[in-house]
Write a structure and sequence with these properties.
4-stranded mixed sheet, 10 strands, 4-stranded antiparallel sheet, alpha+beta
Length: 470
């Protein structure tokens, strides 16, 4: 947030002021700005800040950082229709009143705009809640201060939406567990986790750490802000709407209670957000573990376990974060799950649709961006053969696109001549009445792999060999 000096002159209480109040004699504290550094040096001061967390959240540099983060993420607007380029002028004009309302506990968050995202299961959707941009900035500011506080409490077995942790770390942890003999797993599925989080339980968990009642009240207001779906307002008496900067952190805080219970019972597990798998040495112990942990989840955390999707099976039978597992020479290895492969091919099919009125340059760029992103994510998998087969199929689709573009016989002669095709072959190809897909196979020896590479199209197999991490 690009705040002016005047806006904070009389209202913004800086860290220096509070440190001087806490200990007027300790002048050195006046230059300490980092919350983590305060925590390391003085437990009393750290507790003071935990009790006065709202002032940390409303610091100028924290709000500026939150604004820049929201701006860089871009994204759609909320129910007020405000777009990213309108955010800064609004904040400059209303910052003083906005901060004062938050400080006095009078700020009322806007309802989120509901967006339905189709799931892999046919007919099912995932509900996203898109907050207004102003609420996104405030939520981001809260998350930035809460994250280092709760990071100290989070389990080493939790990997989702945490600094310097990701899906690859979670998958490597799974491999370690399997290599150490824990080959049977409970693949836990929570029924609509983000939609079913119990507000009272979450507030109770938050209050164990956060002693600033104003921050608890502000978070509670966001939980109860409601949603607008198809023009109608709906109350939110439970759940943490996905889509806001605060939601992943609140989800982790809630499920950290499960993490602590699993660790207390001595179980091995890996959790990425609400995707949790528990590792056991035998099928019998896995069934026993599931039977014992479900009552805790449902009676203590007030979450619902989806019994139809929660499975006890060998690790090779599950899908986790788009991957599947197998063993080779006594070691746990990774493959791309068939559903992930199908999803990838559907996307490539869409990007190489002959009916799309894209230029070849735009299509090349879109293909490059998608392929790089997909392979970077699945770089831990053994998929050399898959990449070779997909490359061959993709090149045929690219040839079909070019043949369709060479509609006229005159154009075909011109382009085939550039490719140095013999005259007799050129005449045969240019006058062919076969369809684009059949001609794409015939053109295999004309528009070769090398030609497609010179045209600027990315090779999936070549890029995979460059970045593979297995």
């Amino acid at each position: 947030m690009n705040v002016t000096k005047d806006g904070f002159k009389n209202r913004q209480l800086h860290i220096e002021d509070y440190l001087q109040i806490a200990s007027a004699e300790q002048k050195g504290y006046a230059e300490v700005f980092a919350h983590q550094r305060i925590t390391e040096n003085n437990d009393i001061v750290a507790n003071f800040w935990t009790n006065n967390l709202l002032e940390l959240i409303l610091r100028r540099d924290n709000l500026n950082k939150a604004y820049l983060k929201v701006k860089s993420n871009k994204g759609a607007g909320g129910i007020d229709g405000m777009q990213v380029d309108e955010l800064l002028p609004f904040l400059r004009k209303n910052q003083v009143e906005l901060i004062q309302q938050i400080r006095e506990g009078k700020y009322k968050p806007n309802p989120v705009r509901r967006v339905e995202i189709p799931k892999e299961e046919k007919g099912k959707v995932r509900n996203l809640g898109i907050p207004t941009l102003v609420d996104r900035v405030i939520q981001q500011a809260i998350a930035q201060e809460l994250t280092p506080i709760f990071e100290e409490q989070f389990s080493e077995n939790s990997y989702g939406f945490r600094p310097n942790r990701g899906q690859h770390d979670a998958l490597k942890a799974c491999q370690r567990n399997v290599d150490e003999g824990h080959k049977y797993v409970i693949s836990m599925d929570f029924e609509k986790f983000f939609d079913k989080v119990n507000h009272s339980k979450l507030i109770q968990v938050l209050s164990q750490t956060i002693k600033d009642g104003k921050v608890i009240s502000l978070i509670h207001k966001y939980l109860n802000a409601g949603v607008v779906s198809k023009g109608f307002f709906e109350r939110t008496e439970e759940g943490v709407p996905q889509g806001g900067p605060l939601s992943p952190l609140l989800g982790n805080i809630m499920l950290n209670e499960l993490d602590k219970e699993l660790e207390k019972r001595g179980h091995r597990f890996v959790r990425y957000a609400d995707d949790c798998i528990i590792f056991c040495k035998s099928r019998k112990s896995a069934h026993r573990t599931l039977k014992n942990i479900v009552p805790y989840i449902e009676d203590k955390l007030f979450l619902k376990v989806n019994q139809n999707k929660t499975t006890v099976t060998h690790v090779s039978k599950i899908k986790y974060l788009g991957y599947t597992f197998y063993r080779n020479k006594g070691k746990c290895r990774l493959r791309v799950h068939p559903k992930s492969i199908q999803k990838m091919k559907d996307k490539l099919r869409d990007l190489t649709d002959k009916k799309k009125s894209w230029s070849n340059k735009i299509r090349r760029q879109k293909l490059k961006e998608y392929v790089r992103g997909w392979i970077n994510y699945f770089s831990l998998a053994d998929m050399k053969m898959l990449m070779n087969e997909t490359d061959e199929w993709l090149r045929r689709r690219i040839r079909a696109i070019y043949w369709k573009q060479w509609k006229r016989v005159k154009t075909r002669y011109k382009m085939l001549r550039k490719l140095k095709v013999p005259e007799w072959k050129m005449h045969e190809l240019a006058n062919s009445r076969k369809g684009c897909w059949r001609m794409a196979r015939v053109l295999n020896s004309v528009i070769t792999k090398e030609v497609i590479s010179r045209l600027g199209y990315i090779s999936m197999s070549a890029y995979y060999l460059k970045v593979c991490g297995n």
